[in-house]
Amino acid sequence: MLKNYLLIALRALRRQQGYTAINLVGLALGLACSLFILLYIQDELKYDRHHEDAEQIYRVHTMFGDYGVALTPSIVAPLFTREFPEVQATTRLVPSRGVVRYEDHLFEESAFYYADSSFFDVFTHPFVHGTPDRALDRPNTVVLTASTAQRYFGKENPVGRTLLVDNQTDYEVTGVIEDLPLTSHYQFDFLASLASVPQLVSSEAWAPVNFYTYVRATDEAARARLDEKIPELVSRYLEADEDSRSLSLMPLVDIHLHANVEYELDPTGDIRYVYGFLTVGVLILLIACINYMNLATARSMQRAREVGVRKALGAFRGQLGRQFFAESAVLTGMALLLALSLVSTLLPAFNQFAGKDISATLLTDPWVLLTVGGVGVFVSFIAGSYPAVFLSRFKPVAVLRGTLHGVRGGQGLRKLLVVAQFGVSTVLIAGTAVVMAQLNYLQDQNLGFDKEHLVVLPIDDRLLSERSETIKADLLSHPSVRAATAITQPPGLLNWTYGMLSLDTPEAQWRPTKGLLADADVVEGLGLSLVAGRAFSSAPPTPDSTNYQFIVNETLASNQGWTVEDAVGQRMNIDGRIGSIIGVVADFHFRSLHDRIEPLTIWYQPALTQYLAVRLAPGEIQGALDHLEATWAVHAAHRPFTYRFLDGVYDRLYRSEQQMGQLASLFAGLAIVIACLGLLGLAAFAIQQRRKELGVRKVLGATVTQVVGLLTTDFLKLIGLALLVGLPVTYLALERWLSGFAYHVDLSAGPFLLAAGLLIGIASLTVSSQAIRAALTNPIHTLRQE
To answer: Rg for the chain (alpha carbons), in Å?
Structure first.
């Protein structure tokens, strides 16, 4: 019996080749889009789950009231180990950078981390060479990733070899681990023993806060007991005036999508984007299903005659229902196979487009297979429900006599489905337009300083920092170099936080301020705008603890209740650095535009700077870079020449939004294509149903324009209704999304007019292509057939 159902289904699909092609392509595209989105979401949700018992691992956060950081003091890890039996192991991680040399290989390594010897007791990383037992027990030992080991040593086993770090210390290679998956919230190439830096671990203290601390609990239930014990531990060890500080646990598997603290190791994702793409996937699949149902209802009269004949010959309703479900299952199965083929073929391009490294083997993941199978069954059931349930109940006598009117109810269903389909398309088009507008706003927004043609060079070793003035002088000798300044962190990455106390304000309280240590040329070098006071003099006095010179931004002055003029001369204490404000600069965005501009203090302390920011002349970039490289070779032969442009730093801050915008554009475009495929088929069937009416109208003198207008008006009314439903929903959703940015575009009528115009235009072209063809048909042939 099943074989008979399938055979008849294949014959029915082959008999209606146009109908089959439209449904097959529409369903395949919808399923392929949904599969890509499913793989994207699966990749986002699997972050850090490659570790053994990942649900029992937590990162400790330090909270200062509502302000949280992903860091802790040095004392937290040993204290947790001693005080809490629920803690099986702890480890600390400290990101760094360094120059690594092996024979003729010399690299500037930005992914050089330090960790406690217990690191591999907490985290799971398979070893290619060596063992995890004592890999980091001794000072000056290091574990490499497989690709890093190959870069330095080729295919040989490097265990026992030594690497020269920062041109002064030999590190013994004690192990090689597999490369870290991209779904890890930390990414290192070198993991050195924390004991190699004794100044970091020489004492257990509550300051500074500069360790990433991780805890492996004995079981998942231990989390609740730790949450109860931690507040008492903190209050017992901290002074009374520090009672605003607290510690909290963040599950390792939640860090990528749910952490909302500062000083993350790498940019994280956002669970809102996961929900957003999940919604888009469901909506696209819904559009594809609506296509099938629309075309099924449009063909209902033809299938009604078939049902009447078959029931007259003795077919039961259940048999007919199973037959229609078989047709739906065959078509859905074919579409699913085509979709899987498309996904496998286009996955490398999708990875590059979305910034992912999703393997095709993920398609064999049980969870993915189960989801795909469930989607296939769901689509098959939904798409085949109308013919199976409604057409199979027709009475053969009424059908064969031509007195059947029940199928006309399908017109109302078709109209409702068209409205739903294009309402969804409205959401996708307008949403994509606003996302792209926000991305353009983020990239084109005036940051309050000139980030263009600004190159950042690392000088984070003592030899270079001592030579910074000499290096600057040589750089500035070239006409294509306009300015240079030494700073601790470049704008865009400026996140060092200090405590600030106004000494001239009665009952003043400590408040946080971002801090930037710089040389005398910082205002000119970064292109800041001075609104009051003065910049640092060409040769400021070397600061001691009581004679610092401070330059603050407008936000800091405003938060203190000062005008910019009143701020000049105020005395301040910045974590023990006492001095006077000598100038105020206009606010500038030194962080992502997700965040409002915070108070900022700049002070003169060139000995601690780590970067040179060099401004190049426009149009002379390559010549300037050549000069920078030649100067570097003279002063820093012990280090490779590496640089980055500051606008690239800012672009990286919006990587998630850029990927979201690209994917949203892609899926919105495909959704329109799928919707138009359905509209094309629906228009063809609607015109076929009205061919007698069109013939009569043409015989009575109707023009081609009038006939085309008549046929397109009905569809355009439905598009208009879809816009009335979809636009308000889109507005509310976009308003909520934009609220996540401290600075964003205003919601104007532009994106909504674009969505309306695009949908009306595309629908008009789709329907009119069929309408013109029908209007040009000779009415004699139409009426003769009737």
So the answer is: 34
